[in-house]
Amino acid sequence: MAALLPNQFQLCYKYIPDSIINEIMLLNYCFDYKNNREHLMAKQPYVFAQFLSLIPRYEFQRIVKKYKGDFHTKSFKCWHQLACMIFAHIRQEDSLRDIDIALNAHASKLYHIGIQQCPKSTLADANEKRDYRIYEEFAKSLMQRARREYARSELALEVDNAVYALDASTIDLTLSLFPWAKFRTTKGAVKLHAMINLRGNLPAFATITDGKVHDVKAAPLVPIEPEGIYVVDRAYIDFDWLWSINQSKAYFVTRLKKSIKWTRVISHPVDKSVGLRSDQEILLFSKNTKTKYPKRLRRISFRDETQYRTLVFLTNNFLLPADTIAALYKARWEIELFFKWIKQNLKVKSFYGTSPNAVKTQIWIAMIVYLVLAIIKERYFLENSLSQLLHFLEVNLFEQKSLFSIFCLNSRRIPVKELGEDNQLKLFEY
Q1: H or E stretch including 27?
Q2: Residue 275 domain-assigned?
Q3: Predicted local distance difference test score (pLDDT) of residue 425
């Protein structure tokens, strides 16, 4: 017993009551535990290094090799460019100069993180010259990984099908700095077309075009999945494309334009207490539209009392209840929230380069950051929002803390088998 007590109590331990001895030993244990914990925490890799380690580097390097991204490059490789741009997105740095200053402030730590110091001219050249398709293809590979992670997540609607929302968002550019992106007379822009899987609200498809490209022009690029449900607004009403969805044994839900002529075939009873006004089977009337879409369609009228307006939906799905069709279109709002999140939390409203390649590179790396955070959130059952996770990263980037402790503090459940001996997150297996 004496050997377990602090030195100052070993000589007189026999005169001290057992209850006091137990309290002294408990305090001593807590003191040692605290010191050991602090010692272990001091040896943790930097949070930024741990976050970068979660990115599947082997897959990234495979894509880099495909596009010869590191060809004739001695030091500042594509991986370093990706790391610096991820840093810029997380910190939302305003310019290349700010990125340079922020990284130089932590110059002694960069080696341990696995990246190099990045003069602004070096990063600028990389963004201008290195093929943006490297980051586009890598982002799309992460989309597939994210889909597998969220495959079992619940959908708010009672629908077994995969449900997708498709839309586009304009990213404004200054015409004097981006003359190639002419959108209007005095305005420049590019357009981000994206489709999200409503099971997890994750991007399942994305492409970047000039701002002038109409939304529906990018629709044929979207992969159509049999039995999938594609929810779009009225801008996507192109009956050639809608017919291709029908021929692929998939479904669409959209709003009916007032200019479209149709004739009623049959009406079905509806429950007006839930807001429904009509449920009809129709045929397109005009010669042009009837030729493009010769089969029956379903027209559903719904009264939205919250906004005091009547909405009319058009779909080729005759199986789901009419109120479910209305709820599906309402869920389309999630893609608007996705665009809002990207623009508010990552650096896609101002750019570090002025060429088309630099702009696209920056947008695709923003998508990569979003997807990695989303995969982490689902893999480890985190209660925190993506905004909170991003904020945790921002304030702890150069701290020597466990990423496990930062991200998983409020988790629902931590799969122990997927944690290393050092309690670090392991996101991908190689």
Answers
A1: helix 18-42
A2: yes
A3: 53
Domain ranges, residue 249: 155-339
pLDDT band of 23, cuts 50, 70, 90: low
Q: Residue 196 has which token pair?
A: 């999200």
Beta strand pairing call for 202-210 and 187-197 = antiparallel
How far apart are the C-alpha atoms of 32 and 11, rounded to whole Å?
A: 21
The total of structural domains in the chain comes to 1
Q: What is the mean pLDDT of residues 315-321?
A: 95
Cβ-Cβ contacts under 8 Å for 287 (sequence gap 6 or more) = none
pLDDT in tens, 402-412: 887 777 654 54
**In this structure, is residue 140 part of a structural domain?**
no
57 pLDDT band, cuts 50/70/90, is very high
Measured CA to CA, the distance from residue 163 to residue 255 in angstroms comes to 16
Give CA separation, 314 vs 37, 148, 217, 311, in Å. 61, 31, 20, 10
Tokens 């619940």 belong to residue = 154
The CA distance from 293 to 310, in Å, is: 25
Consecutive H or E run containing 149: helix 133-149
Q: How far apart are CA 327 and CA 321, in angstroms?
A: 10
| Residue 139, in any domain of the structure | no
Q: Judge whether 349 lies within some domain.
A: no
Does the pLDDT of residue 302 top 50, yes or no? yes
Residue 308 region by backbone torsions, left for phi larger than 0, else alpha for psi between -120 and 50, else beta: left
Look at residues 70, 69, 83, 71 and name the one whose alpha carbon lies nearest to residue 115: 83
Environment class of 424 (CB within 10 Å of its CB; exposed 0-12, middle 13-18, buried 19+):
middle
Tell me how far CA of residue 407 lies from CA of 138, 202, 350, 380, in angstroms: 24, 20, 29, 9
- Alpha-carbon distance 410 to 341, whole Å? 22
DSSP string, 219-277: GGGSPPPTT-EEE--GGG--HHHHHHHHHTT-EEEEEPPTT--EEEEEEE---GGGTEE
d(CA 394, CA 89): 10
Q: Is 73 helix (H, G, I), strand (E, B) or coil?
A: coil
Domain CATH for 163: 3.90.350.10
Segment 369-395 mean pLDDT: 89
- Highest-confidence range of 252-261, 305-314, 409-418, by mean pLDDT? 252-261
